[in-house]
Amino acid sequence: MLKKAWNFLSSMRFAVILLLVLIAACAAGSFVTQGQTLAWYTQTYSERTAALIMALHLDDVFHSLWFIVLTAFLCLNLLLCNVLRLPSLIRKWKSAGSARTVRAHRAEAAGRGEKDPDGLFQRLGFRHVEKDGDFRFGIKNRAGIWGAWVCHLGILLVILGFGLGQSFKEEYTVYGVPGQSRQIGDTSYILTIDAFDVDLREDETVRQYAADITVRNASDGTSASGTAAVNAPLTMFGMKFYQNSTGWACDMKVEKDGEEIQKETVCAGDYLAIKDKPDLLVLFNVFYPDYVMDPENGPMTASSELKNPAYLYSAYYQGRMLGMNALTGDEVLTIDEYTITFENPRNYTLIQVKKDPFTPLALIGGLVTLIGLILAFYVQPAWIRAEKNGDEWITEAGSRKGGALFTEHFAEEAEKEGMTPVQKEADAVPADSQPEDAAEQAKTE
Q: CA angle, 342 as apex, 249 and 305 as ends, to 5°?
């Protein structure tokens, strides 16, 4: 029973099942918006669908326990496959260049002629040829034997890098206007926004967002600067800085009985708590650069230019809404003895900060996978042997993956060397002449 379970865990069938389930899970994670609440899913889909999403943890697929367990089993399967195949591959590697092994191979192409076959060997790319009396043989591209094994190893490293990265990565969001400095989460790093540029096309659509930022490590005083743009993240201090989005911000000035008591920069969607009356909150809802009141759609902006700026606000006291309105021109908000002025509108930038210590592991895995694919598809193991029969040399060759192309190439080069190509039918190899890992090789191929 234990042996059956072991064989199943290391089988290709189990790997295919896991891959299909994980592909379905990734598809679900792509179609279902991640990280929302039950109320949001109920409103977006239906009560039953929302309950199913929450029950299966489809609201956070890639961090769910079942996804992590499936990924762990896939890693175990790949590891077992590689570990179990390693001894046979080592034996195959060692025996690949032996006379006994080359004698046992079934030929795919053959030729005969009186001329010494060394010239043909060179033409076909066999630089190193072993000689044993009237028997000569060579093998090239032995490294191709390792193609599938190296590819599996690379995939394993990619999965481990991605899985561990998802589990241990740190993400932070920093937003503000040029001149502001914000701490990056709970780290010792301070991010300062030096400049923010919105590059527009002639039709006023956005071509690019770019933020010049400086990051300083408060613990040792070191700092670095750079530019983060859309699709061009910036890397500093082992973190990646992404230009994520933008919006409008303004200065909110609070006066009490004609005297300024507070002035803060507030981004749209944020609120200001009055300093000496914290139960009084003023929410900066939306900014309209070119304000118009549409009879059907309500307040909106006619363009992105600052022609007729307006600030939509909501005021609350002890959780109860006091009012909501749009201020234009020199209009101010007055609540009891407080006067709130909205001024100096400008764009803010939102920078997403990610720190993934396992990104190098995933990158190494990708490189290893690429090497494995090159070995598997472009480094084709091939062999050649020649034996003198009277006055003639009988030369035979084959390629483990070359097929018809290798046979055609052999015929062309043999003709150039004055040899007569021979139509070779693959004969059965005698059992006593097979290499000791022939059974394993048959299973692998």
A: 55
What's residue 285's pLDDT?
Answer: 94
Which tokens go with 285? 């809802």
Q: List Cβ neighbours of 52 (8 Å cut-off, separation of 6 or more).
A: 58
The H-assigned helical ranges of 336-381 are 359-377
Question: pLDDT value at position 340?
Answer: 95
Q: What six digits make up the tokens of 3?
A: 């042996």
Minimal CA–CA distance to 124: which of 132, 106, 136?
A: 136
Contact (Cβ atoms closer than 8 angstroms) between residue 57 and residue 66: yes
Global model pTM greater than 0.70: no
Work out the mean pLDDT of the chain and round it to a whole number.
Answer: 86
Question: What sections of 45-98 are H helices per DSSP?
Answer: 47-55, 65-95
Q: In whole angstroms, give the CA distance from residue 284 to residue 204.
A: 25
Amino acid at 137: F
Strands 333-335 and 320-328: unpaired
Dihedral sign (CA 282, 285, 289, 292): negative
| pLDDT bracket for residue 438 (50, 70, 90) | very low
How many CB atoms lie under 10 A from the CB of residue 390?
A: 7
Q: How far apart are CA 21 and CA 15, in angstroms?
A: 10
How far is the C-alpha of 60 from the C-alpha of 35, rounded, in Å?
6
3-state SS assignment for residue 57: coil
Closest Cα to residue 147, out of 374, 381, 376, 400?
A: 376
| pLDDT value, residue 22 | 85
Side-chain half-sphere CA neighbours of 44 within 13 A? 14
- Ordered structural domains, the chain, with CATH: 2-65 (no CATH), 96-141+380-444 (3.30.160), 172-355 (no CATH)
> Given a cut of 80, is residue 132 above it in pLDDT?
no
- The sign of the torsion formed by the CA atoms of 156, 158, 160, 163 equals negative
Q: Tell me the C-alpha distance between 26 and 19, whole Å.
A: 10
Count of residues for the chain? 445
Helix (H, G, I), strand (E, B) or coil at 434: coil
pLDDT in tens, 362-403: 999 999 999 999 998 888 888 899 998 888 999 998 887 767
Work out the average pLDDT over 153-167: 87
How far apart are alpha carbons 108 and 106 in whole angstroms? 7
